[in-house]
Amino acid sequence: MTESLHVLMIEDSATDAKLVQQALRGLGQSLVVERVDTPDRMRECLKAKSWDIVLSDWSMPHFGALAALKLLREAAPDVPFIIVSGTIGEETAVEAMRAGAQDYVLKDKLGRLPMAVQRELRERAARREAETGRAQAEQALRRSEEQLRQAQKMEAVGRLAGGVAHDFNNLLSVILTYVEIAAGSLEPDDPMREDLMEAHKAAGRAAELTRQLLLFSRQQPAETVVVDLHKLLEGLSKMIRRIVGEDVDLVLVPPLAPGRVKVDATHIEQVIMNLVVNARDAMPTGGKLTIETSNVVMDQDFADRHGSLQAGSYVMMAVTDTGVGMTADIQTRIFEPFFTTKERGKGTGLGLSTVFGIVRQSKGTIWVYSEPGVGTTFKIYLPRVDAEEDELKAAPAPATLQGSETVLLVEDEDQVRTVAADILGRYGYEVLSAANAAEALALSEMHQARIDLLLTDVVMPQMSGPELARRLTALRPELKVICMSGYTDDSVVRHGVTDAGVAYLQKPITPQLLANKVRAVLDGDKD
To answer: Angle 249-252-257 (CA atoms, 0-180°, nearest 5)?
Structure first.
């Protein structure tokens, strides 16, 4: 059924109004017509309802088309206004059109009125459609600009965090190593040993903070494998139940079909645990925690609204609690490092920033919805893969950490180079130390005997560690390589560590960590 056409007619002649209404029947739809002849009645009608079109006589004893047009534009600017008059001249018509009237029809030519009305109604519909499209485009632009600003802010904070973590890792390598050496030189019952171990624990906590900063800034190298996300979640279920406590009802919702993703399994486990701890803290008196995994297909529009993703198949994990919730202002900052709503001493503010970094490093996105007093939902989208699951195996420990091989050590930080050489020497290795690639190449040329291993920093002045490795392995094919770094800033990929197929060691180094890695690589394990 065709909708009625609502017509507001400004006309003081009842006879002329009937003629106009008769002409409008040519539109072929039902009409709802209201006739007025004073400004006050027109205001009342405009306030009472919406009108599709306004038809006005040009001149009346107490009212006129220009005054009516002004009232209409103040109340309903997009409603078409057509003058229907028997007295309007060409100059007057031009004046009316300039004032904003859409058209004019002479009363002795009412046959063209239906066509004029239809045209104006079509143009109004087109204008509204264009305005709607423009509003949607502006909204999408504002959303994109906000996403860009947020991404730029997080990128800037991430670079700062990565740089700080790099410097701290070099310092912690020195602290952890010498504390371990000093503690190892003391008798087990020496009181000083206990003091040193407390210092070692504090340095270890600092190392964990730098690791979380690197995860946030996506500068922590990932060892990716194909895993079933729900199976990974089930493997953590007992630990999750212990964390949330008996007063929280834990519900795991499996997907209808297996959802496999290619990620660093250890990193994703940390994502889950961080979100679980966050949910537990939001429910101090108990509640319900639901963790759901499902397979979703994301179209481009949905992908654009949920971050810089591509349309395609994803595995979604939703972590929902019935806790205290968050305000909109807090939601805009929750992924910033060191931002926390907890009491001083209750959290580092790195939990959710670590989650953000890991998810983005895994080529996914994270989205949050929260209402104060209702609860919070975090949704993580990770690209789905069709490959079979990888079997997760722990690397076997070396039979001994001692060695007698020759190691070429290249590190531009003096303290770190001294520490690494000291560690290797204590485990029996012969060490050739160089402060840069040029010194390393010169040492290799002068040293006629076999060099078994190159241990080099990744980022160095003039020549990177991987480039140095390529040059030396061309001259010494038997040479094995370990690259180490306090941060990557994508340097592991950019400088070709992964392409070179060499082993990688993340700083801070400790005697045990370095000795294990060196022995494993020399024995043939390049995990």
So the answer is: 165
Indicate the residue type of 34: E
pTM over 0.85: no
Report which secondary-structure segment, H or E, holds 44: helix 39-48
Taking the C-alpha atoms of residue 507 and residue 423, their distance in angstroms, rounded to an integer, is 14
Six-digit token string for 499: 């392409």
Tokens 């080099």 -> residue: 456
Sign of CA dihedral 375, 381, 386, 390: negative
Mean pLDDT over 265-273 rounds to: 86
* Alpha helix (H) residue ranges in 112-236: 113-184, 191-216, 229-235
DSSP 395-417: PPPPS-S----EEEEE-SSHHHH
Question: Cβ-count burial of 435 within 10 angstroms (0-12 exposed, 13-18 middle, 19+ buried)?
Answer: middle
The whole-number pLDDT of residue 527 equals: 45
Q: Tokens representing 254?
A: 């499996």
d(C-alpha 304, C-alpha 436), whole Å = 45
d(CA 89, CA 102): 16
Paired with 289 in beta bridges are 250, 321
Q: Which two tokens stand for residue 145?
A: 């600009």
Share of the chain above pLDDT 70, in %: 84
Region 197-222 average pLDDT: 66
Query: How far, in Å, CA of 129 to CA of 105, rounded?
Result: 27
